[in-house]
């Protein structure tokens, strides 16, 4: 399993539920500002996923996306939901994967009219290639309900604004279609999510939308015929299959967007922050080459036994304070017993078993950020001795 999760965000509860059904045993994670995420794993066990609800509009979408990125340090972010089609050849229920996202409300108003000045974000090359291969293989369609029609999958720009468009003849509708005539669909959140990804060292962001209406005045009728549910089911099926494919790609476990190094220079292969008492540690710097240590004794990091003992103490305190429930605490203690017994053996197979148990332990304690970080430190210490 990848050490870093993938974040999946939606705007509507209908969209949230469509994605949630693919997560095994989702667990609540409370952000300190009140936002509630759920953390679970996909059925193949390769990827941990974080699911969040942003609400309508680009601004709340940007805020919650930024919050999720900083809380979970994902290797990628997916935005999943429904949208309106801008062209008649796009079928209801089709899936649109955004190659570009237009924030189309940017512009300048002058005497001779309104001049568009949009912001544009482009999908990263690797996720785009993976999404197209997934479409060509057709493997994602196995997630569709029995007897469900296989929708088309389209790749192209999506326009994201601040209004619900439901007209083909209004001045706004005509302006969008004329100014952004290559856009396949229109919605209200993708620009905020794309901006958050861009500002976080170009975190890969993929927007997947199911077409639920034609943005032409017939939205009430198509919603009444159940197209919202069908469209979001199709989008969720494709997006979760894409998430698992993205998880199969190699990820080095470091924070996203490590800066490139000049020719002939070396860079450390890992970044490790350790704090006691649930404190958070952050380092802000420019480019750093070579080994860097701040208030840190290397021999302590490799002392897995001491870190495991410290983790036991912190687990007991979290259990006593109610942060960890009885069942989770008992399961965590069992995993720590496995870790201690496995590391007591000198063979590499024992340490391999310990690493597997530590990863299970981290999954159990993921809702308590301080404890999850402590488990990660133990994993790093054990790996340093392999």
Tell me about this structure.
The chain is elongated, with a radius of gyration of 23 Å. The chain has 386 residues and is an alpha/beta fold. It has helices at residues 13-20, 58-72, 125-137, 171-179, 190-199, 219-224, 227-248, 298-301, 304-321, 326-343, 348-364, 369-385, and strands at 6-10, 24-30, 36-41, 48-53, 76-85, 95-103, 107-110, 113-116, 119-122, 153-160, 185-187, 205-213. It folds into two domains: 6-248, Rossmann fold (3-Layer(aba) Sandwich), CATH 3.40.50.1580; 298-385. Strands 5-11-10-6-12 form a five-stranded mixed β-barrel, surrounded by five helices. It has a two-stranded antiparallel sheet with strand order 7-8. It has twelve helices and twelve strands. InterPro entries: Nucleoside_phosphorylase_d, Nucleoside_phosphorylase_sf. This is 8-oxo-dGTP diphosphatase.
Any chance you could write out the topology, listing elements then pairs?
Blueprint: E1 6-10, H1 13-20, E2 24-30, E3 36-41, E4 48-53, H2 58-72, E5 76-85, E6 95-103, E7 107-110, E8 113-116, E9 119-122, H3 125-137, E10 153-160, H4 171-179, E11 185-187, H5 190-199, E12 205-213, H6 219-224, H7 227-248, H8 298-301, H9 304-321, H10 326-343, H11 348-364, H12 369-385
Parallel strand pairs: 1-4, 1-5, 5-12, 6-10, 10-11
Antiparallel strand pairs: 2-3, 3-4, 5-11, 6-9, 6-12, 7-8
Helix pairs in contact: 1-7, 2-5, 3-7, 9-10, 9-12, 10-11, 11-12
Protein name: 8-oxo-dGTP diphosphatase
GO cellular component, one term: cytosol
GO molecular function: adenosylhomocysteine nucleosidase activity; methylthioadenosine nucleosidase activity
């Amino acid at each position: 399993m990848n050490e870093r999760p993938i974040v999946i965000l939606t705007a509507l509860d209908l969209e949230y539920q469509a994605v949630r059904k693919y997560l095994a045993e989702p667990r609540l994670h409370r952000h300190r500002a009140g936002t509630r995420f759920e953390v679970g794993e996909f059925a193949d066990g390769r990827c941990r996923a974080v699911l969040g609800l942003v609400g309508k509009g680009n601004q709340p979408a940007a805020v919650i996306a930024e919050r999720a990125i900083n809380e979970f340090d994902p290797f990628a972010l997916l935005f999943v939901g429904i949208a309106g089609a801008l062209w008649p050849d796009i079928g209801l229920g089709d899936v649109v994967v955004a190659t570009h996202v237009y924030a189309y409300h940017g512009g300048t108003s002058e005497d001779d009219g309104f001049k568009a000045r949009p912001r544009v974000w482009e999908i990263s090359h690797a996720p785009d290639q993976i999404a197209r291969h997934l479409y060509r293989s057709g493997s994602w369609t196995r997630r569709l309900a029995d007897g469900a029609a296989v929708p088309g999958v389209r790749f192209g720009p999506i326009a994201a604004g601040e209004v619900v468009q439901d007209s083909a003849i209004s001045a706004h509708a005509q302006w969008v279609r004329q100014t952004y005539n290559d856009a396949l669909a229109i919605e209200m959140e993708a620009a905020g999510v794309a901006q958050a990804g861009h500002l976080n060292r170009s975190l890969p962001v993929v927007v997947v939308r199911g077409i639920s209406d034609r943005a032409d005045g017939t939205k009430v009728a198509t919603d009444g015929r159940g197209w919202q549910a069908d469209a979001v089911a199709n989008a969720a099926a494709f997006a979760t299959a894409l998430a698992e494919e993205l998880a199969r790609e190699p990820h080095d476990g470091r924070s996203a967007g490590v800066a490139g190094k000049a020719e002939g220079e070396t860079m450390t292969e890992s970044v490790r922050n350790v704090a006691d008492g649930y404190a958070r540690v952050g380092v802000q710097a420019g480019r750093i080459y070579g080994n860097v240590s701040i208030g840190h004794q290397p021999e302590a990091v490799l002392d897995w036994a001491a870190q495991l003992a410290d983790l036991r103490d912190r687990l007991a305190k979290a259990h006593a304070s109610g942060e960890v429930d009885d069942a989770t605490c008992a399961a965590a203690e069992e995993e720590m017993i496995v870790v201690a017994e496995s590391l007591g053996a000198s063979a590499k197979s024992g340490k391999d078993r310990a690493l597997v148990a530590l990863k299970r332990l981290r999954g159990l304690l993921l809702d308590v950020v301080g404890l999850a970080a402590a488990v990660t430190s133990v994993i790093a210490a054990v790996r340093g001795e392999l």
